Give the backbone structure.
Amino acid sequence: MVLAEIETVLLDEARVQVGVAELARRISEDYQGRDLLLVGVLKGAVVFMADLSRALTVPHEVDFIATSSYGSATETSGVVRLLKDLDREIEGRHVVLVEDIVDSGLTLDYLLATLRPRRPASLEVCALLQKPDELRVEVPVRYKAFDIPSVFVVGYGLDYAERYRNLPYVGTLRREVYERSGGG
Ligand code: PRP
């Protein structure tokens, strides 16, 4: 059942789960015998991170970091702030940053620049979605499931004004939803 506020489903639940399983398979293969730490970027990555972590067949730990760039608007402000740092040191660890979506790339660019000086053994990025046409800075995304067009999407961790993160699919919102809430 699709929520009434959703205009189009871009990726249904089955497709999302196939994408997650494929990423988990690749990461499990690449990190065999390595000390893997998944770092989820709050809050959007939470749903993806939970599924990805459970689909991995290699032992790993998880930690979270929080940034903010959007507020409740639908476009990035271009300024990234660190809201919550990691709980533990990452020196010598094999770190995979887990993101729901790469849009302008500014969040990841900021996070990679923040984490690299902490000297992890390796640092890679895993993102469920990317909007290739929105990229403002080049970011190395080793593991990616889907490229999507430049439309505002919600679901599977992605929100509009903090809602819709719980939807098991990725879709666009009906115009009325923005208009009713006065743009966020
Ligand atoms: C979203 C998303 C990424 C970032 C991507 O987070 O989860 O972290 O924007 O955009 P960028 O590539 O243009 O930087 P947001 O700041 O909306 O916070 P949230 O995860 O808490 O929803």
